[in-house]
Amino acid sequence: MRFARFVLLAQALFMLAFSLAYWVRPYEMANLNGMLLMESASISHMRVYYGGLQLGLALFLLWAARAPERMRTALMMLVFLMAALVFGRLLSLWLDGGSLIGFDLASLIYRLLAALLAALAYRLLREPEEDAQPIPPPTRRLDDTPPQPFRLGDGPAPFEAGADDAAERDGASDQPASR
C-alpha cells in the first residue's frame, strides 16, 4: 500500500507542478511543444485546459491517496489516462510522420513510466477480500446433559389448586385488595 500511495502522491506532485507552470507561464509551456500563442483566447485555453485539467487530476489523486479503498480506482484511472496519452502521442507521430522533439520525447517517456508504475502499484495492491458469510455464534445449552427423547407425561406435575386458589375461584377475589 505504501508503494501505491507513493505512486499516487508522486503523480499528484508532478501534475501540480505542470498545472502551476501552465497557469503562470503559458507562453513558455506552449513553446516547449512548438506552439505559438497568438490570441488571448489561446492563452486562456492553455491555462484553463492544460493547467485546470492537471490541477483537477492532481487533487483527485491526493484525495484518493488518503484512503485505501480509493487507491485502486485512482491507480486504474492513472493507467488508462497515461496509456491513452502515450497511444495518442505515438499515433500522432505515425500520422504526421514527424520526429520527436526533446520535450515530446521526455513527455512520452514520462507518461510511459507513469503508466507502468501505476499498473505495477495496482497489481501489488491487494484486492480487498470479500466478506465471508457470517458464522452464527455457538449457543450454550443450559443443561450439559445430552438431550433426552420427549415422552408424553414427562413434564412438570399438574397444578393442584389449594384452599387459597379455591377462594379466588369462588369470587372472593373480586373485591379490591386493601392496602
UniProtKB/TrEMBL annotation:
Instruction: Please give the InterPro entries that the UniProt record associates with this protein.
Output: DUF4345
State the UniProt keywords alphabetically: Membrane, Transmembrane, Transmembrane helix
Q: Where is this region: Disordered?
A: 131-179
Query: Which residue ranges does UniProt annotate as crossing the membrane?
Result: 45-63, 75-95, 107-125
Protein source organism: Stutzerimonas balearica DSM 6083
User: Which Pfam family, any one, appears in the UniProt record?
Assistant: DUF4345
Q: What is this protein called?
A: DUF4345 domain-containing protein
